[in-house]
Amino acid sequence: MTNRRRRQVRFGSNLSSSLQLDLTELIGVPLPPAVSFVTGFEGYPAYSFGPGANVGRLTKSFIPDPFYYNFAITVTAKPTARTGGVLFAITNAYQKIVQLGISLSEVEDGSQRVVLFYTDTGSGSTQEAASFKMGDMTGRWARFTITVQGAQVRLFMDCEEYHRVDFLRSDRPLTFEPSSGIFVGNAGGTGLPRFVVSLGLSMSRDGTMTVLKLGSALVVCTLLSSSLYHFMRWQLVYGFYLLRAFLYNVKKRKQGCAHVYDAFVSYNVHDEDWVYGELVPELEQRQRWKLCLHHRDFEPGKPIIENITDAIHSSRKTLCVISRHYLQSEWCSQEIQMASFRLFDEKKDVLILLFLEELSSNQLAPFYRIRKLVRSRTYLSWDQARGDKALFWEKVQRALEIGDNLE
């Protein structure tokens, strides 16, 4: 059986600006080859990485420079192999030195070590700042926090201090080269091993107080919400992302946004062959419309929610390519939700529904918003138009030409 690694990675800080950096956004949408959604720690969404997955971007897109002098890194991990590997790494421009990173060692005699790499700017080789011995984590979830404060590295398990070590470092924070890379589940070209793991990882500034505050908050929140979460976990997770999208949508509407594209194409990665084989050649090359496509036009490093909302507001229309795969996709669901916000809130005729295949009423039953849109709007059917593709594309052209105002 092929081993796969699953990870859910988030970087954040308690800076006054409440900056939140989420490394899962390195993955982007549509998902790259060998990466898929899975159920992660405590039921939260996570990612599965196949052997060919390779996720990395420029450090400057995600991490402040200079970096925090005191910080905490919290990890929830469930390795699916005993070989260990890199959880995350920030490398120099040549991908030869790990400036900051965490790895787990191979399991030996029922235990393994968690290693913190911290290499001062200008050093000629990767430096190991601390190494802590832990029990074998393979096949089970474990949560731990590493804090760096001054010349000390501490390991916390379940918010209680487990061990501490001293280390030597410069009195200045880390700085990164313009071409420095940040990687999840691997360390670029350094030669350090990739990881096979389910993973959650967060980073915050000013380590120890963050650990204590988070610990207290977790206890209170757990007591108050455990029952609710047990019965409604997916609804709560989805509601959070939807609220975040709605608030960002309101912000973009107030700011106003010039139309850069004629249409944003919302589709599932399983339907990508049809989109690039049929839709793009017809609409872009023959009809000369300017389309916004996930893989080609989304900004690397920007949060997925913001990329989606920016795409919707910078396009005159949103064209939803609906199929069974589309209905099963959380990101596609968010895209049609946000396009609906604009449709009903701004009173603009911005939504085009294109059904790639015939879907029964039973298949649409769980999707209230799509059923409502289908009942109230004319939609296009590729399956019904197979005998006359020219007429189908003529209808798409008319839909794109129609003005935006509903009133």
From TrEMBL:
It holds the Pfam family TIR. It is found in: Membrane. It is a single-pass type I membrane protein. The keyword Transmembrane helix applies. GO terms for cellular component: plasma membrane. GO terms for biological process: inflammatory response; innate immune response; toll-like receptor signaling pathway. The keyword Amino-acid biosynthesis does not apply. It comes from the Eukaryota. The chain crosses the membrane at residues 211-228. Residues 259-400 form the TIR domain. Keywords: Glycoprotein, Immunity, Inflammatory response, Innate immunity, Leucine-rich repeat, Membrane, Receptor, Repeat, Signal, Transmembrane, Transmembrane helix. One of its GO terms (molecular function) is signaling receptor activity. Belongs to the Toll-like receptor family. This is TIR domain-containing protein.
